[in-house]
Amino acid sequence: MKLELRGITKRFGSVVANDHIDLTVEPGQIHALLGENGAGKSTLMNILYGLTRPDEGEILIDESPVAFTRPKDAIAAGIGMVHQHFMLVPVFTVAENVVLGDERTRRLGPLGFGLLDRRRAREDVLRVSQRFGLTVDPDALVENLPVGVQQRVEIIKALLRDATLLILDEPTAVLTPGETEDLFAVMRSLKESGHSIVFITHKLNEVQQMADTITVIRQGKVVGSMPPTASDEELAARMVGRAVRLAPEKAAATLGEIVLSVESLTVSDDLGNTAVRGVSFDIKAGEILGIAGVQGNGQTELCEALVGLRPAVDGRFAVRGRDLTGHATREILHAGVGYVPEDRQAEGLVTEFTVAENLALDRYDQPPYSKGLALNLDVMNAAATDQVKQFDIRTESIGSPASSLSGGNQQKVVVARELSRSVGLLIASQPTRGVDVGSIEFVHRRIVEVRNQGSAVLLVSTELDEIAALADRIAVMYEGEIVAMRSADVSREELGLLMAGGGAGAGASASAAGEPASAAAPA
Amino acid sequence: MTPPETPPPETPPPDVAADVAAEPGAERWRSAVFDAVVEGNTVTVTFLAFVAAIVVGGLLIAFTDPNVLPKFGHFFSTPGAAIAAAWSSASGAYTAMFRGAIIDIHTVSAAFHGGSITAVFEPISETLVNATPLILTGLAVMLPFRCGLFNIGGTGQFIGGAVVAGWIGFALQLPPVVHVIAAIAGGLVGGAVCGWLVGFLRARTGANEVIVTIMFNYVAQFLLLYLLGTHAFRRPKRIDPISRVVHGTARMPHLLGSTLRVNFGFILAIGAAFAVSWLIKRSTVGFEFRTIGANPDAARAAGMNVERGYIVVMLVAGALAGLAGAAVVLGTDYSLTPGIYGSYGFDAITVALLGRGTSLGVVLASLLFGALHAGGVQMQAATQTPIDIVIVIQALIVLFIAAPPLVRTIFRLRGQRSGPEKRAALKVVGA
Question: What pTM, to 2 d.p., does this model score?
């Protein structure tokens, strides 16, 4: 199927989400749509899938114009979409989910009651999964499946409705490196069988690896088409609209004394299961220790324990020789620990508070922010004005609610708050998740600055790029343990393997290791 | 939809003209007011909910009046008579209510002819007396609400304050000024202990404060009944449960002469409203409350002690409700009775809702409810309309406020929009 979008324009009030976008997807092509959060990628795809209607422009399939008013029309035309958040019923089996909304029935007896044809549903699933290498058990309950497999179910669902063009909206955001490789293999086999794929992402290396054509969107406009051979810097510059330095400049670490020492620390998660198993490590002044690992391997609990949000079941940790195990969060923060929590909306910010209030969240009761019981609003506002300028926080005013800021600027508020008091240890968990490239660059530079000023940094990230760009030493966490400690020059392949829990030759991650080295590795 | 290139019409309609940003101050101010009214924001909706409730209440008054219904039997022959009867029934009831709550013009003219001047102020005095405990219990619901807690325990905390304040008032012999201060302080402490207990249970055991406070209401009610039977409380030579009488030295001073009931308790309530407002907006403790209320996880991550916040806010709320108890027992009732807590604890929830979570709002809502109650008494006396209609009107107000889209539909207001979308909507409407 050949798909053409001509002059698609969509306005929300005075905001132009899509501004005369032209796009052509040839049959059997993987077409990458690259752009920052809020660039208008998702709006465009929602138009294509019939979820919203364009104000102007037309959609052509195989040279003839079509108009979609609802997803059903798009599905009938052969378009399938896999959303970033899956649309699956957790308590149903794979087969049941796949037929949902398009149930086939058998007539039962002369009365003509329809009976759900489960056998046929199972067979359909197996047929498609074998054809494209989408391994999945049709009888498994979706809630028991890992995220990567759930995504396969979504793809099977689209294929069973005869989709010849698949839209994948940020498909790798939730996947482990191994699962990402599996997905890419599926995408290749789909392409070979003549399917077209629109691949939405903001990750540069994936685009280079997979795409046949790259269309870059910025602020609702197509700003260029590029071949997959384009370099990281070229792509990033096109995406952001200015030259970007992806990895901050970083001199060799000058190590000082040990700042954080963790000794066989054991921590439980909310359900009482052991999440961190006897972890020990040190971080020295002037050093960034990166903790790599797939989400959910104990990194969250480790960070929470280190700032006193979660009790240590066993073991201890000390900051600059002072044992802080079992101390309150407030004391730990006052001992010079900065904390950037992994989920800024849930823990880092009070979204309905103003920017100024959020910047004072951990020091509102200390002079000069307070005078006795009273808040000193003048000091608070002056400090906020200062920090907004210093950390380049784009906000209408310091009195705007934090919820009105973009993700990147919200994150800058958290970083500004934590770094504008003196910190000997910075614990940063996923500091750039869901943040635009421009802000990533800024946050990274700040983290390196803190390290250069002689602080210790514990950086937790599931993004290998981030770990590789910042860390001086890399620890890999798997199922609550630090399974490896490597120097910063460790290869990506080895890290990917370790994150998947395998030493060399482990079956589960063989596909990740099998990929050529050039596949992933921005400078 | 109009493409952006289309030039605006030569003479734009007034709301578009008013929306153009670059305008002199006065014009912009006027358009802001216009926007506020037409947009159906919370203040407008609250006011219109009141209007709608009054209209529906009026219909109820008219059609439950035994004098009106027969006239509707002849509606098709003499429709005028039927409508006139309905109008006079409803307007009569509301007029009587106004006389009982705000001012009665007859007492004014009587005053000019040598009558009592205090009679002129009696309706206002009754309104303020009724509003006083509502303000305090309303604050006791509103403040924890800002901290993420739902305090249904106004009744229990009210009783806690009333019992301690009353006991100090009738059992102790103290010099004049000292006595009333001690009794008021006792009320604060009595309520605070009740509130603290709830906060403590919530913080230490995670017990749901809604259930705990509801149960504590029963405990407090029956404890009060028990106390009224004990030797320490029971009034000599009475067999019904009523306490001894508060000494004159412990009574709240009257504000407008001894015949009018309005007393120093009202001043305390207004003072408390200012204090709570300051606490929420300008104090470190209030900042902590608001953070915990909006996002307890972020509060924890910023090093706040969420559990301590729950305890402190319930302690303060309990003290406020206890002060309401003190204001009633020391200001108007002068003795403890089994029903002294009235419906203040529950009306407080309505008041806090109506007051939209601010001190000023709570004060205004309490004055409104106080006026409805004071007027209701007069209405029943003058027109035989049952005072229960007041409760119906209160319920209607809450109903309309709880469903802003309903009010917006009735009065054809635009929904609240923000920023660019709102501007665009105005433009579209204009074009």
Answer: 0.77
